[in-house]
Amino acid sequence: MTVTNAMFTIERTLKASPARVFAAYSSLEAKSAWFKTPSDIETLNRDFDFRVGGVERFRARWPSGMVSDFQATYHDIVENERIILVYDLFHDADKLSVSLMTLEFRAEGDGTRLIHTEQGTYLSGGVEAVKGREHGTTWHVENLVALIEGREAKPFS
Amino acid sequence: MVERLSLGPASVSELAKPLPMTLSAVVQHLKVLEEAGLVTSQKVGRVRTCTLDIGAMTQVERWVAERKRFWEQQYDQLEAYLARTAPQEGEQ
User: How confident is the model over B39-74, as pLDDT tens digits?
Assistant: First the structure.
């Protein structure tokens, strides 16, 4: 098994105040209204304890039978400004990654600049175990291609 | 576009020609493909030639690119949600 460290950043300018963007993350009700999961998955565990030291978990069974498990702990929360969490991602028994996710909400005019930074340690043994399943290479490439060519990407399934 | 590139390298204008989109839209799409590490390009004189480079990506790189794409998709949903729930004028 090899270890790869990687980082990516996503920036969005949103037409909403930092308070509204922060609110979209801070309750399960609001987050569930936009965080899209396909309808054909079976939710096995859904925990949402939004406070420093609190745990968020989303464990689900996919049509292929694969069970994905997102296990996060909130490390820092400053209302309307930032959220920092650390999460592990599993597919069945394989740990794919351990990641530090930082969300910053910066007021910009009437809106908000959202800066999502992930610094991840990717465990290739786990990632390669995914190969050949629904989440394998073909699916990644197909979705990237769909995105580029302006077609709807297949849901994360 | 990717289908065409899988046959071999092509210039930006060759890629744009059969597509029902503007040249700038094609350039934008190529930029996303390059950022995802799927395409490399080289400029010789005034011609930029693009090459499909899926093999160059490791499984992990592809996975990271996918995680990024996953979040981009979620944020499209967030934008729609914020628009849907925007306070009416005078309400805020």
Answer: 888 888 889 999 887 665 666 777 788 888 888 889
- Say if the ipTM goes beyond 0.85: no
Cβ partners under 8 Å of residue B36, min gap 6: A144, A148, B65, B68, B69
A vs B, Cβ pairs < 8 A, gives 106
Question: CATH number of the domain that B5 lies in?
Answer: 1.10.10.10
Q: Which neighbouring-strand residues pair with A114? A: A12, A105
> A104 and A89 in contact (C-beta within 8 Å)?
no
**Tally of structural domains, chain B:** 2
Q: Are the CB atoms for A109 and A90 separated by under 8 Å?
A: no
Which of A 121-150 lie inside 8 A of B, CB atoms? Answer: 122, 124, 127-128, 130-131, 137, 140-141, 143-145, 147-150
CB-based contact, A71 to chain B, within 8 Å: no
Residues B76 and B36 grouped into a single domain: no
